[in-house]
Design goal:
With 110 residues, the protein is α+β, with helices and mostly antiparallel strands. Helix content is 19%, strand content 43%. It is built from 2 helices and 7 strands. The chain has helices at residues 64-73, 98-108, and strands at residues 9-15, 20-27, 37-42, 45-52, 55-58, 76-82, 88-94. The chain has a 7-stranded antiparallel β-sheet with strand order 1-2-5-4-3-6-7, covered by helices on one side. Strand 4 (45-52) and strand 5 (55-58) form a beta hairpin. The radius of gyration is 14 Å and the shape is globular.
Length: 110
């Protein structure tokens, strides 16, 4: 992304009241193409996310643990999608610190 341009944020949430861990979703820097897919690849493991406005959720919620595990083991993540304006966006993320962050979340949210 060019400097000053909006970028995607990746969130992993623990919902302790629902006894749910590692719910993953993306919040994009722009609105996604309606009813489109975002593709995420971590270390060769690909998952699909469904979009709504600027948010994308896993197509298969059962993939959350797999995505979290791959993120802790991998070194980079590639996110591909299309904006509402039809612009294809590919973003690369370093996963440096993902394991430490996951441990901190797990320790705090039991």
């Amino acid at each position: 992304q060019p400097e000053g341009e909006p970028h995607t944020n990746i969130h992993t949430t623990h919902r302790t009241t629902r006894k749910q861990k590692t719910e993953a979703h993306l919040v994009g820097g722009s609105v996604y193409q309606p009813c489109s897919n975002e593709n995420v690849n971590v270390g060769g493991q690909a998952v699909t996310l469904l979009t709504q406005n600027e948010t994308a959720w896993l197509d298969d919620a059962n993939q959350s643990d797999n995505l979290a595990r791959a993120s802790r083991a991998g070194s980079s993540m590639v996110v591909e999608g299309t904006t509402a304006g039809g612009i294809k966006v590919v973003e690369n993320f370093s996963l440096s610190g993902a394991t430490a962050a996951a441990k901190a979340i797990n320790d705090e949210c039991k």
